[in-house]
Specification:
The protein is an alpha/beta fold. The protein has a domain of 250 residues: Rossmann fold, CATH 3.40.50.
Length: 453
Amino acid sequence: MKPVKVFLDESEIPKQWYNVLADMPTPMSPPLHPGTGQPVGPDDLAPVFPMNLIEQEVSTERWIDIPEEVLEKYLLWRPTPLYRARNFEKLLDAPVQIYYKNEGVSPPGSHKPNTAIAQAYYNKAFGIKRLSTETGAGQWGSALSMACQMFGLECRVFMVRVSYDQKPFRGIMMNVWGANCIPSPSDKTEAGRKILAEHPDSPGSLGIAISEAIEDAVGDEDARYSLGSVLNHVLLHQTVNGLETQKQLEKIGVYPDVVIGCTGGGSNFAGLCLPFVRDKIHGKEISVVAAEPTSCPTMTRGPFAYDFGDTAQTTPLLAMYTLGHDFVPAPIHAGGLRYHGMAPIISHLVKEQIMEARAYNQIQTFEAGVQWARTEGFISAPETNHAIAAVVQEAERAKEEGKEKVILFNWSGHGLVDLAAYDAYLTGKLQQYEMPEEEIARALQAIDGLPKP
């Protein structure tokens, strides 16, 4: 029998996270204080994050030790298995080997606990009693809810309203883990009340939910804000994934030609790809592909610019690809990947052409996801389907070129609580949608007058 899975022993789990800032070939533009226009310092971030996480956010150390208390929790599901998708390879009939890292085996069913556990630990160690956060499709809110329960913290989650309505089971998962899940925009914050006064039927956005969560956290000295993507320390924690994957591929003597991941804010993609990006920076021939939705085409149609991370303009200005901080995704957008900006680290690497961004429409992604389920068995999260669509495209290219390729991608989570979206696809109700040019122009008016990177 040909092997399908590659395992690591629990003793082989990485003991350090990898920080790509130590290997960046060119310097990144620093976050700026919106009031002064100067680079932000640790004290500027102290009301929002605990200082131990702020230290990681600004660190340029290549390797950062994973605390024992975090490793103990990781062992509930890590190391995660690496699979070879032999049945999908047969379907595609192309000269490719396809490997995927199964991050869906975590308790909440996605990659998100890699940083949720770490952030809950560091906040607890700093003396924080409650975390406030936002969530889009619900993967992050679920993960942080579980992590907070494990470390004895209270958790409040502002969930984008359209997702709250479309995916009620995510909210129930958060409640089971003891969290309070609130649809956003809400009447619980000034930011939410302002949006509701202007747009009573607002479907919400991650930018709005972030504004609410930050306001909620800053107003309580025992609370801090927690973010599931975008920032440097979040991407850092996710690299346990890629470091494991490198060990697994080394066991079978394989190295990828292409590394692929779906991208919304950049965390799952970064977690798999950044250790391979280090290899590329040091001369390895490898392509790194970020797959995003055409309904939220941050990297493929947005400018690289300074912008706020939230709608209420309370965050520092981040140098990133953006659709404007007041961007609201179309309600017919079936998956996650709804954030208006892209992680500064990922944005910088795309700008420097170290990685490539591609956009896929939701019909294309669900078609790939159904093909995957009917061959590999696993039902993927709608977000993950974007990566699978990119895998299909790479396989087709390999077939056209007659060139053998090894493709690696991050299977970032399962879709067992996303079945309503699959039902919409299977019954022909899901619409093909690309963000109109006039909507992009409108959204980008929000960054007029802001500093340039």
